[in-house]
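WARN  no MSA supplied for this record, continuing single-sequence
INFO  ligand: flavin mononucleotide
INFO  echoing inputs
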Amino acid sequence: MNKISQLISLLGGTGAVAEMLKIQPSTISNWKKLNKIPSTKHTAVLELSSQLDVNIENFLPTKKLYNFKFKILLIISGGIASYKSLEIIRLLKKTDVELDVVITKSAQKFITPLLVTSLNEKKCYIDLFSVDDEAKMNHIKLARSPDIILVAPATANIMAKLANGLADDLASTILLASFSKIILAPSMNPVMWNNLATRENYTKLLDRGIEFINPDTGDMACGESGTGRLPEPKSIINYVFSYFHENRILASQLKNISILITAGPTVEEIDPVRFVSNKSSGKQGFEIASELTRRGAKVTLISGPVNIPFPNCENVIQVNTAQEMLDNVNRQLPTDILICSAAVADWKFIPKNNTNNRINTHNKIKKTDGRLLFEALKNPDILETVSKSNLRPKIVIGFSAETNNIKKNAYSKLKSKNADLIIANDVSNNKVFGEDFNKVILVDKNNYEEWKKQSKKSVAYHLANKIHNLLINYNQRDIDA
Ligand SMILES: Cc1cc2nc3c(=O)[nH]c(=O)nc-3n(C[C@H](O)[C@H](O)[C@H](O)COP(=O)(O)O)c2cc1C
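INFO  complex generated
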């Protein structure tokens, strides 16, 4: 029996592995025959072995599995599980990762810098105000050079400091000064973990894009049991490598693809101080812009007025009215993909007595006891205009906020506007607008797909996968034609 056959049998056999990895049993048989697992499947196999708690180190040597070259800064804070970080260092030393280690003052009560130095065969950093270190590897360099900063274990204290912007030692200063991906592996007494303050810090950090390897549940070193145990070093490492691997693949998925996204509300002035608008927060469109940028796309975001920070994409254009939004969309054409997530005002309202169908931007409408009448003039439909133009992008996606007959209305919008995909949501009773969660139905000319309620970030992630597939199909059609 060759190594890969042994590995598959350890993981439950061909059928079970095929089912868990959602691939054909014949593919697994092929791996066994060739005695090789393709590198694109290493992460999935790793994750599976970690879920099943099966040690596969002898079957796929760690060095081979973890052959990505990247930089990790490991911060060890002062929890009872600090000793487990020594095993993290030992395992990382078997890989191609370049590792630096910082330990907090409290962590030094559990492990020593000397022990870390001898394991890592490198200086262990402990002091923010070290003249020697500042000259050679200052704290900003330490913060900037890694691809990933892993804090394991992360104490309640270091979570609180990061959530509140405190920088009173080397570890917390690095965390604030870094652009790197931060992954926290918290470990603490279950009461500390469930404390409202820790919960709030956790949510705050999650919202800011910090990644968490959540603690395990079980008996704790302190004698209590519950959630708060640091996961085993091997699963922590698996998580970090899977994360890095997935991001590396994703980062090139939409390379050289230009994507234009509209987001937020539009506002239609009725005089110099008043306007008509809607409740769109822009959150969903901004999450999509972030995710598609992470996938390597060149994203231009055209946004109406919002109160949230702009995502880090190629280009952001701010507009007010529907007409301005359309003009700017037109200026950005041609583009490969258009995603119209903005809630564009359908009408503009002109006071009845105004001339030329124009609002008066100089004089405020005077308060009156009589009725004030407005004429509602239809705004341009951006989705329809672009998707029926001769500069129609390869893929056109629209959003449809509905309060009833969601699927039916979304389908007729798909048809009438010549879109490839409509993402519909139920906005009745103040659902969705401004919220962090969304429940969407995807409608294309063949299918309805109802997605479970999930964060807008998660909707963006799955939508990016969908877009990637649409693009593959589009390119295939092109080849077939
Ligand atoms: C024996 C002992 C064990 C501790 N274990 C933990 C722990 O597992 N998790 C935690 O959040 N704090 C733990 N603490 C408390 C932290 O050490 C304390 O909050 C410290 O200020 C953390 O500092 P740091 O975050 O800078 O490393 C422990 C304290 C002691 C004395």
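The longest strand covers residues 395-402.
INFO  checksum written, moving to next record
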